[in-house]
Amino acid sequence: MTSLDSVDLELLAALSREPRATVVALADALGLSRNTVQARMARLDREGVFLSFERAISTTALGYPIEAFINVLVRQVQLPQIAEDLSRIPEVVQAHGMSGEVDLFVRVACRDTQHLFETDARILAIDGVERTETSLAMGEVIPYRIMPLLEMTRHRHSRR
Fold first, then answer.
1. Other C-beta atoms within 10 Å of 115: how many?
2. Burial bucket for residue 51 (CB in 10 Å: 0-12, 13-18, 19+)
3. In the structure, what pLDDT confidence band is assigned to residue 158 with cuts at 50, 70 and 90?
4. Where are the alpha helices (DSSP H) in the chain?
5. Quick one: which H or E segment has residue 72?
């Protein structure tokens, strides 16, 4: 596990507030040298702190306004192959392995309900998939966010 110090946390908070910030802008904002910021960002990247540099793009803008979450039950021994097969379905935008009654939690984006029905059928057709249960997303209530956790971590670090 990566050990983050207060400078790392400040850098991450600055990036969270302004994801497009340049290294020079971050260095100025944090009172650090450009080389220090670059070195820390490179280390954080190597250590897996940054999840993705891919820009989040609206599936609705691409013509896929229907978002659904599919609970998938599988034969556990086939999970690696099932995950590989799922990754070949373009409508699958994210999948998580789960504990409990559901094995996989799969997020899909589709054009309409018929397309969702067909996508679910393709998932069910994967060898080793035993059952699915689909829930239509009605709207995002809390978008992905990291700032509250960063603030709590920074607060914990400042009390040390």
1. 15
2. exposed
3. confident
4. 6-17, 23-30, 34-46, 79-87, 113-124, 147-158
5. strand 66-74
